[in-house]
Specification:
Elements (H helix, E strand, L loop, with lengths): L1 H30 L7 H28 L7 E3 L1 H16 L3 E6 L6 E4 L1 H18 L4 E12 L12 E10 L29 H11 L3 E6 L5 E10 L19 E5 L3 H13 L3 E5 L2 H9 L6 E5 L7 H11 L5 E5 L4 H6 L4 E4 L4 H13 L6
Parallel strand pairs: 2-4, 8-9, 8-10, 10-11, 11-12
Antiparallel strand pairs: 1-3, 3-7, 4-5, 5-7, 6-7
Length: 372
C-alpha cells in the first residue's frame, strides 16, 4: 500500500513542482520591479509568494514520503547535528517544555542529508510538543545499535549496524489502534486545520530512502518514543564548504537545457536578470550538438527529468568530453538511480528561488571546474 501511494504522490509532486517554479520565479522577478512605495502591490506579491512557498513545502513532503526527493548526503555525526540544531528545537518546544539530551560517547558516523535529517527531527519534536499540549519533558538521545535479525528494530530494516536518534516525550502516548497507520500519508489525529498529516509520512519516506527505518512505540511509564535508525558509515566527517566570493553575474553565457516551455522562459528571465547571457535548447541531444559544434559557455544548466537522454547522462557526457565545463542540475523529482548518479554534480531543487539559483551558479563559476 505504501509503495503504491508513494508512486502516485511522487508523480503528482513532480508536475506540481514545475508549476510552482514558474509562480515563485516570477514572484522574485516582480519583486525587484515593483515600486517600494506601492504597498498594495507589494502585499499582493508577498501573499502570492507565501502561498506558493506553502505549496512547495507540501510537495517536498509528498516527495519525501514517496522516496523521490533528491538527497544530498554527506558523512556526519548525529551528535553534532543534534547539538547544532538544539537552539531551534528549544524554540520550537517553547518555554514550558524541558529538553534533555542524552548523546552517546563514541557515536558512529552516518551518511545523511543534514537538511532533511533536521526536518525529520523537527517533525518528531513538533509531534512531541503537541502530544504534551505544550508542557512536559522531551529527551533526544543517540546510540549505536547492532541487530542480527531483519525487522527487529523497525519495519523493513535489515540486520546490521545502525546509529539511532530517538525523541521521547511525556505526553499521552499513541492510541494502540493508530500505531500501525501512524506513518500513512494524510493520517492525523489533530483537529481540522492543525496539520497536513504528512509530517510522519515524510519522516518514514526519508528514512527508507536513506537506507534506514523509523519505529514508534508507547512507553510503560507513559509517553511515546520515535526512533530513527541510520546505517553506520565509515570514514572522516566532511569539512564544511568554504564561502562563496562572487556577488553578480558578469555577462557569462549559460547553456540552459529545459523541456518545459514555461519553466524555460522563466529560467531565461531569471538568468538574464542575474547578469548572464542565455542560450536555450529543449533536449540533451541538441545540447551536445551545440557543444560539439564549438559553442562556448561558462556553464550548462540542465533539468534532470527529460524525454530521451536525462540531465544526469548529459552531465556525465559533458564531464568526459568537456572536463572544464561546469554543470548545474535541477529537478523537482528524483528516483533512486538518478539520485545516486547525480551526487557528483551541483544541484538546485525545484522550485528554486532567484537567490538559490544565483548562489549555486556563483559556487560553480568560482570553483576550479565546478566538479564536486
Amino acid at each position: 500500500k505504501m509503495e503504491a501511494v508513494g508512486k502516485l504522490t511522487g508523480g503528482i509532486a513532480h508536475d506540481f513542482n514545475n508549476l510552482l517554479q514558474v509562480v515563485l520565479g516570477y514572484v522574485d522577478l516582480l519583486d525587484g520591479r515593483i515600486d517600494a512605495n506601492d504597498r498594495p502591490a507589494r502585499r499582493a506579491i508577498e501573499a502570492i509568494g507565501a502561498a506558493a512557498n506553502r505549496g512547495a513545502t507540501l510537495t517536498q513532503q509528498l516527495l519525501a514520503f514517496a522516496r523521490k526527493q533528491e538527497l544530498r548526503d554527506r558523512l556526519l555525526n548525529l551528535n553534532t547535528l543534534v547539538s547544532d540544531f538544539s537552539p531551534i528545537i528549544q524554540r520550537n518546544l517553547g518555554g514550558e517544555v524541558t529538553l534533555k539530551r542524552t548523546l552517546a560517547d563514541d557515536l558512529w558516523n552516518s551518511r545523511i542529508d543534514p537538511v532533511q535529517a533536521e526536518m525529520a527531527l523537527l517533525n518528531l519534536v513538533s509531534n512531541a510538543h503537541d502530544a504534551m499540549d505544550g508542557a512536559g519533558h522531551v529527551t533526544i538521545a543517540t546510540e549505536n545499535v547492532v541487530t542480527d535479525s531483519d525487522g527487529a528494530l523497525a519495519p523493513g530494516l535489515e540486520a546490521g549496524e545502525y546509529v539511532s536518534l530517538s525523541v521521547t516525550d511525556s505526553g499521552r502516548g499513541i492510541e494502540e489502534e493508530n500505531l500501525d497507520k501512524i506513518f500513512d500519508p494524510f493520517f492525523s489525529t489533530k483537529g481540522v486545520g492543525k496539520g497536513t498529516g504528512l509530517g510522519l509520512s515524510m519522516v518514514y519516506g526519508f528514512m527508507r530512502q536513506s537506507g534506514g527505518g523509523v519505529a514508534a512505540e508507547n512507553l510503560a511509564e507513559g509517553g511515546a518514543r520515535f526512533t530513527l535508525y541510520f546505517p553506520r558509515a565509515r570514514g572522516m566527517v566532511d569539512a564544511k564548504p568554504g564561502p562563496v566570493l562572487r556577488n553578480v553575474g558578469g555577462g557569462e553565457t549559460i547553456l540552459m537545457v529545459e523541456d518545459q516551455p514555461q519553466v524555460a522562459e522563466l529560467g531565461r528571465a531569471m538568468l538574464e536578470d542575474l547578469g548572464y547571457t542565455v542560450e536555450h535548447v529543449d533536449n540533451a541531444a541538441r545540447a551536445l550538438e551545440v557543444l560539439r559544434g564549438g559553442g562556448q559557455f561558462a556553464l550548462v544548466f540542465t533539468d534532470i527529468v527529460m524525454p530521451g537522454m536525462t540531465g544526469v547522462a548529459l552531465a556525465q557526457t559533458i564531464r568526459r568530453e568537456f572536463p572544464n565545463l561546469p554543470v548545474l542540475l535541477t529537478t523537482g523529482y528524483s528516483d533512486r538511480a538518478l539520485d545516486e548518479d547525480s551526487r557528483a554534480f551541483e544541484l538546485v531543487r525545484k522550485p528554486y528561488r532567484r537567490a538559490d539559483l544565483s548562489s549555486r551558479i556563483k559556487t560553480l563559476l568560482d570553483g576550479p571546474n565546478g566538479i564536486a
